[in-house]
Fold:
Amino acid sequence: MGSNKQYDGYKSYDYLAVGDDYRAFTLPERHSGFDPYEIPLTDEETERAREVAADNYVVSFHEHPFYFPDDLDEDLWDYIREGRAVTAYEHLAETALDGVFDMHFDGLASIHSQHGWKWDDIVHDVSMRACDIAHSEYAIRCDGVNDIRRAYDEGKLAVVPALESAAMIENELDRIEQLYGMGVRSMGITYTASNALGTGEGGIYKRDGGLTSFGVAAVERMNKVGMAISTSHSSPQTTLDVCEASEKPVFDTHALARRAGVGKRGASDEELEAIADTGGVIGILSSTHLPDIDTYMAHFEYIVDLVGIDNVAFGPDVLYGDHTALLEVLADFHGIELPETTLQNPYVKGLENPTEAWNNIIRWLVKSDYTDGEIKKVLGENILHALEESW
Structure:
């Protein structure tokens, strides 16, 4: 898959001299010490998978499509302080992806601060990635739906700048416009911790205050600007309030279904239905919450049965590196008590990184006899259709 991709061989920051202009770190191999897995197909199914990959828009709703350092204990914080995420262009070109929502450093964005999510951290992260992408002929920064369609036509990858929290806007609505001007096209309300907009999903205190009055104003401004709104990592009441307040589709870029067997980490049926009722789309989350791709696709099928196939897509939320170890660092950094269902697996078989995930998602859909029309919708058309209303 991805044989039509016009990868130009560019590596992150090739326009600089490594060692003189910036510090380089040892990066992991593609499979991070785990055995790769590919869903077995017959010759006929393999050919159909190739055709599906070539004939459809393929969009990931949620990824961190870059490397983290090989030695997280030794190098992680120095890597983050360097402020230069190294995008895995060469491995992304091995996928069928035409568009990818890039969530940046997000909860680890402590480039200039002790605890992250400050304005300077986010501006640095977003603008540095923009400069890197601008030097690649293969990757283009996505400004709108037509850029994803153009990437498909030209064998390129449209990278959608996205953020998982609006914490950095503090109490300034105009910062939404500034972020939009920097290229950000999707933003979450909260990232686990509560902020000026609403209640997050995590923390010691379990009171759910929902969306604040400022949060309502922020939703209205995001609607006016044309920035997609995500409720990932928001509390249940915040999610329901956002769906009520927004005049445009609302998204959860990476979700699991609580009733499909992941305990508190999953979204309730009520939340998932509320998002779908706005015309929004739910991306299915992998991370390290599940043992394998079959369990992952069980959540996909549960949510399809609940809200309909027009409102579901995929947002695996994976990266190139040791995801399990990284989540342990993230939880400690933010003082989060991880649910018992989290980190129970060293990695999710068949979904180790974006390359493996998107190869196997397509293979699973083909092996499970989904129709061409159904596959077209969930691989990308649902997202593009909703974004045409949101953007």
About this structure: The longest strand covers residues 157-163. The CA atoms of residues 79 and 340 lie 29 Å apart.
